[in-house]
């Protein structure tokens, strides 16, 4: 999916919501555990109930890898279901990969060619040759971790190197990578106050913003400092949406949480006109 197709979807749905599919067998309603593939059954019900409210889904691969082959199969079925039934929805493999070039090439093949995701999250720590193999897929998007939502972000990402924070080096240096126009960046919603500075460096890039909901980030603050003329934001909520209810009404409850965020987003978009 191209960036302009994504922007078109945002305007069409009046939403820049990304729903995180962090599916945990310990948290899904117990009646689903009787199903042959409980993870996929849960995801399918969530997708069926919420697809009109969001423009992206983000399965975090850890939740699938944790269940071995059964987990990978559930991930494969989930992305297959999305691509077949909702090809207009942007898909993000939150896998946080990145290795020497030769190995990154294989990660890129796995997530872009085999699983057919539109994008993947990548850790920038190993530098240019670890990121460019993902960018070589010019019809896909590489989402670099820049300033993450967790407290540990302050251990390294905000440390000064030559008088400038490390996350700023990530943003600036990555702009020189081959096919950098296909880069997006992860910025935590809990770090909304940094977005003013971030937008000075990457005014036009799309930002994937996790941390609204369970981590306490504010949608209003993120929009205030981070929105650009193309919207430029994908705001993610995972647990706050998908675990809204432990009962048989879980999908309906998820849609209601997603709907509340979508309403807020529609208001933001209206105010921009
Ligand atoms: O900085 C980051 C990068 C990734 N994440 C991931 O996003 C979701 C957030 O889940 P919630 O349940 O809405 O808190 C999860 O998959 C994280 O691993 C992040 O939170 N922060």
Automatic annotation (TrEMBL):
EC number: 4.1.1.23
Transmembrane portions of the chain: none
Keyword field contains Hydrolase: no
Protein name per UniProt: Orotidine-5'-phosphate decarboxylase
Gene source species: Pricia antarctica
Principal EC category: lyase
Domain (Orotidine 5'-phosphate decarboxylase) ranges: 16-254
UniProt-recorded Gene Ontology molecular function terms: orotidine-5'-phosphate decarboxylase activity
Family label: Belongs to the OMP decarboxylase family. Type 2 subfamily.
Keywords from the named record: Decarboxylase, Lyase, Pyrimidine biosynthesis
Keyword Lyase applies: yes
A GO biological-process term: 'de novo' UMP biosynthetic process
Xref: InterPro entries: Aldolase_TIM, OMPdecase_type-2, OMPdeCOase_dom, RibuloseP-bd_barrel
Catalytic activity, reaction form: orotidine 5'-phosphate + H(+) = UMP + CO2
Pathway: Pyrimidine metabolism; UMP biosynthesis via de novo pathway; UMP from orotate: step 2/2
Database matches in Gene3D superfamilies: Aldolase class I
